[in-house]
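Appendix B, record 7
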Amino acid sequence: MYSAQVLDHFQNPRNPGTVANPDAVAQLDNPACGDVLKLTLRIENGHVAEIQFLAKGCVPAIACGSALTELVQGRTVEGARTLKREELVDAVGGLPEASNHASHLAMDTLAKALGEIES
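Structure tokens (predicted):
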């Protein structure tokens, strides 16, 4: 049902936790399913120097939070803003239709966090 990438990110999440002294913090939840995703970011010289996540929810929600941190870390803030949901879905090897909400939660949380950062 889930891709090998989804299962790998779920079983071995990348960048879990909370960034100390973050420049941006965002937390969103999906009231329909109960998934919760929190992102903390540290910005240096216009780049995402560090990003970590905390997630409570289904396997794809945790996998998308993990994969998102890998896709965003090191990018410029502007580059992070241009990340497409399709890139995230590709990074986890695709999602079943019923699990697409996880990628939307991750992207919405990222957008909220990046909204706290001045360009």
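Remarks on this record: The two ends are 40 Å apart (CA to CA). Residues 100-114 form the longest helix (15 residues).
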